[in-house]
Design a protein that fits this description.
Length: about 300
């Protein structure tokens, strides 16, 4: 079933492809891909000596962009408190993306500082802010970071897990099924949902192992994630499938909506639908799922 609470308009975020801003071919290709969003990366996929060139390439790319392509556009900057961060944010202002992804957020102030910087520059509603959760400190401070979603006009939209950095910092093993990471991922889900944020699962590095990748997407969906950060175009199809709306789930949602629309169920809080109790909260979930399915259909008809 769909998630219970959301503080911003419904967006498709099944597949978010990271594209190094220093890779001209990948930049060019990104607009033609069926991912729901592109994360233009100025951080770890760009070598230190290429940072300035990557910013310039990104600004040129956005200047020539066809903004009718149905993709959300996010720029991942380097840490705002570091050497490259302020110049990256100036590039963000020039680009005008939908959102800025902040890496290695450790405490609420890491997000608030950027929100205040953007507000001072007159950037009121957009870009939105997304925060990467990828350090032990971020895990300890999850509730405080997610709570930023309720301040500064609710500018924080999404938490994105970064398991490469988290494994590096903690020593947690990279294992099939992510057994020792699942408890941390679930903490993130609970914190994000408490403040109405969208939740994006971490990248999977083995971009040729598509069966394993599909299983990890399915696991992420079952945990409650909305989508996954990707590193390669081959991962888009499996992610869109796993985080899309299955036919059976859509049929069930339609049955719930139809049942509550029956005259005999008017005014009822709970009904019997084929031997299962269904409440009005399930009707709300069903309506959201139907709306998401409609968004997917609209997108597929446009691309
Ligand atoms: C992983 C790669 C370095 C592999 O690159 P390559 O060997 O060139 O792949 P292919 O030859 O299989 O590529 C086939 C075609 O697809 C295009 N391509 C590849 N990757 C992308 C991409 N990301 N976006 C757009 N297009 C892409 C190639 O250009 C080929 O096109 P064509 O010429 O038409 O055949 C590479 O995939 C890559 O660099 N991926 C992204 C890396 C990245 O962004 N890293 C940062 C995100 S990871 C992260 O955030 C971790 C997190 O912080 C954490 O801590 O966990
Ligand atoms: Mg990282």
């Amino acid at each position: 079933m769909d998630k219970p609470f959301q503080h911003h308009p419904l967006r498709l975020r099944r597949s978010l492809l990271s594209v190094p801003a220093s890779n001209a071919r990948a930049l060019e290709k990104s607009s033609s891909l069926a991912c729901d969003g592109v994360i233009f990366d100025l951080e770890d996929s760009v070598a230190p000596e290429k940072k300035a060139d990557a910013r310039a390439a990104l600004v040129a790319h956005f200047a020539a962009l066809d903004r009718t392509v149905p993709q959300e556009r996010i720029v991942r900057i380097n840490a705002f408190s570091g050497r490259e961060g302020p110049a990256d944010l100036e590039a963000v202002i020039a680009c005008g993306p939908d959102a800025v992804l902040l890496p290695k957020v450790e405490e609420p102030q890491d997000v608030l500082a950027v929100a205040d910087w953007l507000a001072e520059r007159g950037a009121e509603e957009t870009p939105r802010l997304w925060a990467m959760i990828e350090t032990p400190a971020a895990i300890l401070n999850l509730a405080g970071i997610a709570a930023v979603g309720r301040t500064r006009g609710g500018r924080l939209d999404c938490l994105v897990l970064g398991l490469n950095d988290l494994r590096l910092a903690t020593g947690i093993a990279d294992m099939p099924g992510r057994p020792f990471l699942v408890p941390l991922l679930m903490q993130a889900i609970v914190a994000g949902r408490a403040f109405g944020l969208d939740m994006i699962d971490s990248v999977y590095n083995g971009f040729t192992e598509l069966d394993v990748f599909a299983a990890e997407c399915e696991q992420g969906r079952q945990m409650g994630f909305d989508g996954k950060m990707l590193i390669h175009p081959a991962q888009i199809g499996p992610a869109n499938r796993a985080f899309g709306v299955a036919d059976a789930a859509l049929a069930e949602a339609r049955a719930i909506a139809a049942a509550f629309a029956l005259p005999e169920n008017t005014g009822k809080g709970a009904i019997n639908l084929n031997g299962r109790m269904v409440e009005r909260l399930h009707l709300d979930q069903a309506r959201r799922l139907i709306a998401r399915a409609e968004l997917i259909t609209q997108k597929e008809n446009r691309t």
